[in-house]
Design brief:
Elements (H helix, E strand, L loop, with lengths): L5 H12 L8 H15 L6 E7 L6 E3 L4 E11 L2 E4 L1 E2 L2 H7 L6 E2 L3 E5 L2 E5 L1 E2 L4 E8 L11 H5 L1 H15 L3 H27 L7 E2 L1
InterPro entries: SU10_adaptor
Pfam families: SU10_adaptor
């Protein structure tokens, strides 16, 4: 059976599960699987570059909807550019309370779908970011890079969710082991290619 599209994956999970009564719930297995995969993988194919423009007197910036994690975040002003360093939210609130001092940002933190800058920008600055993006959800697009190149990751993750749903701990453990092995293979191959000197490919945001 082909595993090239979302419909293929739904049909394959139904076939592996050998259940004819789960058509309504199998899409949930895919959604849960995708959430886990996005937590577990950080591949070069997920890297996206983009820019933000600050607003004077405002320290909050909305994160992109597909954002998972920053690889780099730099601030540019005038002729100079410098990296922004991540700090815990508590540290920022202690050192820069209530949107306090104004200036060129040097640190950032994360809060509820936003990233916060400190000092609070006093003027417009350009922020240059490279971040890991979520794989496009298969319920929105028929396929994506991961399904095309590593369908076992999707199938194993979905079958783990099916086993949990049917409360079959033994099968869940087997699918979990296969999922972890597939994830490790994909991540190790990507890390190895990067360390061997392959060019880093950054997709435009």
């Amino acid at each position: 059976m082909s595993l090239a599209t979302y419909s293929d994956l739904l049909a394959s999970v139904a076939a592996w599960a050998n259940r004819a009564d789960l058509d309504a719930i199998i899409p949930d297995f895919v959604t849960l699987a995708e959430a886990r995969i996005n937590r577990d993988l950080r591949l070069r194919m997920q890297l996206v570059s983009t820019t933000f423009s600050t607003v004077g007197g405002t320290r909050s910036q909305a994160l992109p909807s597909d954002w998972l994690e920053f690889q780099n975040l730099d601030v540019s002003g005038g002729a100079s550019s410098a990296p922004l360093n991540y700090v815990p939210l508590g540290y920022m609130e202690e050192k820069f309370p209530d949107n306090g001092s104004l200036g060129k940002p040097s640190i950032y933190t994360l809060q509820a779908g936003n990233f916060l800058l400190a000092p609070t920008p006093d003027i417009v600055y350009t922020l240059k970011a490279v971040y890991y993006a979520k794989f496009p959800a298969l319920s929105v697009t028929p396929t994506n890079w991961l399904l095309t190149n590593h369908p076992s990751v999707y199938l194993n993750a979905c079958m783990k969710e099916f086993s949990l749903y049917t409360m079959n701990d033994e099968r869940a453990a087997r699918w979990e082991a296969m999922y972890k092995s597939a994830i490790k293979d994909v991540q190790d191959a990507d890390d190895s290619a990067l360390s061997s000197g392959s060019a880093l490919r950054v997709r435009a945001g």
